[in-house]
């Protein structure tokens, strides 16, 4: 019954917008059921308003119980406000006068005095009035937050104002509900920001873990990957996921500090083994400034992630071809990785680290050492470091240009509010720095 009444009122208004609509129903309880709302006990002179649409109100005048009759009067309150505001809009007033002179073919005036544009109601330049129309067409239960295109298509059938499409797009873009629940169908925000290039070997390193590997005879089930960000040389250390923090720290000193000294900064993801209290204290005592990547954003540590991909490929190939445990092949896998050409530096990591590639069985003709005096070695090493830094800079620029093609530039300022979409960090946050 409610649907029939609503549809009947709407159809009647389309054909006779200036005439009231009268409906007849039997029983006060039936009338209250139509509203879906609670109401006070009616009396003979009381009016109860039930809202159907934003611009229409049904006024129910409850009669006596003997009559069992309710009279419903449909009132276009929003339309009345629009008509009143049209008389205060200087632009629409001029158009109205031109229409009366027959100078505006696309505009017309209805019998009730409403100014129309191609049979659509002209909404005056009234911010509150337009906002009410936009909210009704976007935020109500029978519209359910449509996109700007759908919302524009729906509204343009009934309303018109100058810049309507742009106003709708801005309104939808500012809707907090839409920002929270809708999926973005556009390129990710923010251009690629490459990390600074280190000045010297093993000065800045990155690290991560490869876990979930088959357990070996020595009870190892993970690989600790530690990479120099300048020379791209890496160490692959077999470990257990249950190693304590103190044991990992001891292993780090034995295998890394022993060979290369203490690094200046360490880039890692937010693994609990790096974010605990022990690691900052250890690195602070060694003069290391622990530099964590952004939470849940492992692309910041992309170098280690890429090294891990190569390591996993080499592990699969080695185990497939030579059988046995992965730990047995790990030392030679590390050698093969460091002695192979690396595109970003234009040479093998060992060549960048030691000034030349390490001898392998395939290089039988390279017998003996080059006789270089101290100054020549220093000059060659410095020249290689300069060349490596230039090649890394070129590689970063190339990678940035490729990555930025799939991204869009977006700048924030201090005080802006942003939504974080990744759990468990989610909600509305303010930018502080």
TrEMBL record:
Endpoints of the signal sequence: none
Residues of the Integrase catalytic domain: 194-357
SUPFAM superfamilies per the UniProt record, alphabetical: Ribonuclease H-like
Tree of life domain: Eukaryota
Gene3D superfamilies: 1.10.340.70, Ribonuclease H-like superfamily/Ribonuclease H
One GO process term, biological-process aspect: DNA integration
GO molecular function, one term: nucleic acid binding
PANTHER family per record: CHROMO DOMAIN-CONTAINING PROTEIN-RELATED (PTHR45835:SF99), YALI0A06105P (PTHR45835)
Protein name: Integrase catalytic domain-containing protein
């Amino acid at each position: 019954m409610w649907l029939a009444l609503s549809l009947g009122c709407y159809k009647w208004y389309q054909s006779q917008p200036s005439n009231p609509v009268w409906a007849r129903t039997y029983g006060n309880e039936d009338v209250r059921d139509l509203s879906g709302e609670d109401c006070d006990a009616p009396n003979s002179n009381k009016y109860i308003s039930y809202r159907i649409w934003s611009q229409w109100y049904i006024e129910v005048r409850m009669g006596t119980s003997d009559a069992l009759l309710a009279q419903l009067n449909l009132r276009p309150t929003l339309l009345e406000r629009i008509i009143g505001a049209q008389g205060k809009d200087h632009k629409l007033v001029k158009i109205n006068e031109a229409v009366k002179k027959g100078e505006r073919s696309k505009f017309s005036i209805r019998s009730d005095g409403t100014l129309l544009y191609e049979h659509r109601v002209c909404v005056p330049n009234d911010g509150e009035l337009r906002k009410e129309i936009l909210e009704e067409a976007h935020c109500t239960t029978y519209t359910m937050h449509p996109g700007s295109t759908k919302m524009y298509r729906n509204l343009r059938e009934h309303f018109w104002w100058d810049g309507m499409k742009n106003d709708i797009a801005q309104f939808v873009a500012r809707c907090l509900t839409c920002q929270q629940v809708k999926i973005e169908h556009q390129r990710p925000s923010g251009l690629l920001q490459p990390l600074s290039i280190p000045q010297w070997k093993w000065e800045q390193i990155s690290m991560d873990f490869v876990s979930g590997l088959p357990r070996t005879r020595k009870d190892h089930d993970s690989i600790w990957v530690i990479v120099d960000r300048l020379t791209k040389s890496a160490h692959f250390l077999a470990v257990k996921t249950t190693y304590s923090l103190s044991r990992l720290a001891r292993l780090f000193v034995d295998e890394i500090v022993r060979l290369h000294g203490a690094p200046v900064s360490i880039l890692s993801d937010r693994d609990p083994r790096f974010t605990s209290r022990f690691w900052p204290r250890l690195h602070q005592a060694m003069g290391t400034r622990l530099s964590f990547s952004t939470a849940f954003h492992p692309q910041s540590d992309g170098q280690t992630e890429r090294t891990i991909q190569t390591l996993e490929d080499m592990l699969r190939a080695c185990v497939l071809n030579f059988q046995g445990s992965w730990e047995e092949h790990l030392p030679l896998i590390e050698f093969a990785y460091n002695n192979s050409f690396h595109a970003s530096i234009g040479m093998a990591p060992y060549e960048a680290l030691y000034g030349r590639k390490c001898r392998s069985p395939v290089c039988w003709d390279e017998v003996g050492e080059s006789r270089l005096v101290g100054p020549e070695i220093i000059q060659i090493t410095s020249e290689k470091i300069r060349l490596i830094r230039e090649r890394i800079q070129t590689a970063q620029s190339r990678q940035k240009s490729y990555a930025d093609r799939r991204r869009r530039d977006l700048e924030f300022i201090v005080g802006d509010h942003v939504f974080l979409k990744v759990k468990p960090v989610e909600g509305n946050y303010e930018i502080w720095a």
